């Protein structure tokens, strides 16, 4: 795989690519607490006929790490992505690409497709809720509120201390939220993740994604997402979209698919009943096959 750094948003983003430089661009955005490596199976698969590129989000692994919570609000994250696509497509008139995203990467990709549809030929979202149904569930659904309670810890000042303890034991347990209770990471992958989390400042930067977001469950002293006044019309995604959902996800319930077609009119949903939140690790062949079928459309 080809490693390089790309300028974006006044910083440098670490990228990893497979495939010919002149092939159609397919860009992958990881979630929490991951880094580019989450997409290794997809880079191998789609690098055969695309320029498949995964990158470390700002603050993660080898990418630059701006300080402060404000640096992780949605505007700088969207600008990173826009400038990265411009850089990768510098010699092309049509800048649009296939955008594939999971978890926090999905949150970024949903908003990006609304703000900059000219850069998105097709959108693939994996276990990442659209803002409108997520805010609704966080405000009113007790089951999703309880499932999202972990977000309150990740926003707390003690989060770094808790997650770093015992060589990142708590972070590794997050990957055990699977249907059978086993870790979604292999024994060979765990050291790679610990190394990424150990990069100076990386854990705080990753947690700042949660601290910067208004989407979190309510507490007795804070209404959380219930305070948001969202207009679905301004958050409608107009590009062709595939949502892949591992239904055994214990953090993000299938309630988050309810009413999704109202804000994503050109929508396909592929449910994987045995897949957890970490379905890209557990079921890479099913995920790749679903994406392949979607790309063949049209």
Automatic annotation (TrEMBL):
Domain AB hydrolase-1: 24-283
A molecular-function term among this protein's GO annotations: hydrolase activity
Domain of life from the UniProt record: Bacteria
InterPro entries the UniProt entry points to: AB_hydrolase_1 (IPR000073), AB_hydrolase_fold (IPR029058), Epox_hydrolase-like (IPR000639)
Keywords: Hydrolase
A Pfam family hit: Abhydrolase_1
PANTHER family the UniProt entry points to: EPOXIDE HYDROLASE
Name used for this protein in its record: Alpha/beta hydrolase fold protein
Source organism of this protein record: Sulfuritalea hydrogenivorans sk43H
């Amino acid at each position: 795989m080809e490693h390089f750094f790309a300028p974006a948003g006044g910083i440098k983003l670490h990228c990893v690519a497979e495939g010919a430089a002149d092939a159609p661009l397919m860009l992958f955005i990881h979630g929490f607490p991951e880094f580019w490596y989450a997409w290794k199976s997809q880079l191998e698969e789609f690098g055969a006929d695309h320029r498949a590129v995964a990158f470390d989000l700002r603050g993660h692994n080898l990418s630059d790490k701006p300080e402060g919570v404000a640096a992780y609000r949605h505007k700088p994250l969207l600008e990173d992505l826009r400038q990265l696509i411009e850089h990768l497509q510098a010699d092309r008139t049509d800048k649009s690409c296939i955008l594939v995203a999971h978890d926090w990467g999905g949150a970024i990709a949903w908003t990006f497709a609304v703000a900059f549809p000219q850069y998105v030929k097709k959108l693939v979202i994996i276990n990442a809720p659209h803002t409108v149904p997520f805010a609704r569930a966080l405000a009113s659904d007790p089951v999703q509120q309880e499932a999202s309670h972990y977000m309150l810890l990740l926003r707390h000042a003690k989060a770094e201390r808790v997650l770093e303890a015992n060589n990142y034991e708590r972070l590794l347990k997050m990957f055990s939220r699977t249907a059978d209770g086993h870790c979604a990471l292999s024994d060979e992958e765990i050291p790679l993740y610990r190394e990424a989390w150990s990069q100076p400042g990386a854990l705080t930067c990753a947690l700042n994604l949660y601290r910067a977001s208004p989407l979190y469950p309510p507490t007795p002293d804070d209404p959380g997402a219930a305070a948001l006044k969202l207009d679905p019309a301004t958050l409608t995604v107009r590009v062709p979209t595939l949502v892949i959902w591992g239904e055994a996800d214990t953090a993000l319930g299938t309630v988050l698919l309810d009413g999704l077609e109202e804000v994503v009119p050109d929508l396909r949903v592929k449910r994987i009943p045995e897949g957890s939140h970490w379905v890209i690790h557990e079921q890479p062949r099913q995920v790749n096959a679903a994406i392949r079928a979607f790309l063949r459309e049209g």
